[in-house]
């Protein structure tokens, strides 16, 4: 449990740290922080909707690996990548034009959603990579002996923080944090694929 499970549980901590650090960068502007957290919440809701499918995929993958059926395992992984990519593009295509309406559900109609909608756009662009990472991380944990998902999550955290640090100083901190989270998520998705 300690050698296999512990590092994999830290992957979730590193993944959440990326979102936490992004919000922390906005600590001096509560409006920017609220807008960024609202935008990130939309991405997390989409991820939560996809999680049950990813759990089923892990069970099937584990059975295929246990039965040493490499062809079935490879077919399942290709299905995840293709199906996840297609579903992500559908979500992106539907969510992007409806961003303000989606955010309105979270924060209510009385709040100006212009800035939160602007911060949501980079997150929506990164959503396919995030869903790919979440779809594959269970499979990676089954197939890999090393804690590869921990390395991907730590890499995403480093990319996110580094991207925020590289943003021009005249940019609003919320937009820089949104770009940083999107870059970190993309690196995790690319690494998982």
Task: Please describe what this structure looks like.
This protein has seven helices and no strands. The chain has about 190 residues and is an all-alpha fold. Helix 1 (about 5-25) runs antiparallel to helix 2 (about 30-65). The two termini are about 25 Å apart. The model has no long low-confidence stretch (mean pLDDT about 80).
End-to-end separation in angstroms reads 26 Å
Query: How many strand units?
Result: 0
Morphology call: globular
Integer-rounded radius of gyration: 17 Å
Number of helices, counting only DSSP H or I runs of 4 residues or more: 7
The description of the largest β-sheet is: none
Poorly predicted spans:
none
Approximate helicity band: over 70%
Strand content: under 5%
Average pLDDT reading = 81
- The assigned structural class equals mainly alpha
Q: Provide the succession of SSEs.
A: HHHHHHH
Quick tags:
83% helix
Draw up the topology in text.
Elements: H1 5-24, H2 30-66, H3 70-95, H4 99-107, H5 114-143, H6 148-166, H7 173-192
The gist of it:
With 193 residues, the protein is mainly α. The chain is 83% helix and 0% strand. The protein contains seven helices and no strands.
